Amino acid sequence: MANDTSLGARLKNDLLEDFTVSVVSALLAILALLPFYRMGFSVTEIGPLLLAIAVFLPYAYTEYWPIRYSGSAAVIWTVSAALVTTGVFIGTYQLAHSYVSVQYDSGIAFLVTVVVQYGTAALFKRVHETS
Q1: Structural domain range at position 64
Q2: How far is CA 69 from CA 22, 52, 72, 77, 111, in A?
Q3: Which of 3, 62, 96, 107 shows its CA 20 to 30 Å from the CA of 90?
Q4: What is the total count of domains within the chain?
Q5: Other CB atoms closer than 10 Å to residue 13's CB: what's the count?
Q6: Does residue 71 lie in a domain region?
Q7: What is the pLDDT of residues 47-79, one digit of tens each?
Q8: Is residue 1 one of the residues assigned to a domain?
């Protein structure tokens, strides 16, 4: 079972697949860092949010989201997903900060946010496939 495409061609395809979502996610993570840092949050507190936006958001899109967007539609999807991710993270962070030890609040917010990201994408994929 030989693969007809070269390693270079497969690598290029993997890197450029969903390139818009990856680039916009990375830029949004950097943009999210600035206001939170100015509000007094440390990078260790908001680092998981940056990771959820820059890494896990493109991965959820590539692996679970059933529809592929290009151009401005991909940008709009990414911005919308990043806003939802940020909202879930902030809400969970505030709840965890109120009820749990301060050293765990960011980690709890990260875990809940990633579960919501993947759960939403997987649910949408399932609904899309059954309809």
Answers
A1: 7-130
A2: 12, 20, 8, 8, 27
A3: 62
A4: 1
A5: 10
A6: yes
A7: 999 999 999 999 999 888 888 888 899 999 999
A8: no
* Cβ count within 10 A of residue 22: 21
Long-range contact set of residues 26-33: C-beta below 8 Å, sequence gap at least 24: 26/54, 28/53, 28/54, 28/78, 28/79, 28/82, 29/53, 29/54, 29/82, 32/82, 32/86
Which stretches of 39-104 are DSSP H helices? 43-51, 57-63, 72-99
Token readout for 124 is 């949408």
Q: What is the pLDDT of residues 11-55, one digit of tens each?
A: 777 767 788 999 999 999 999 999 988 999 888 889 999 999 999
2: in domain: no
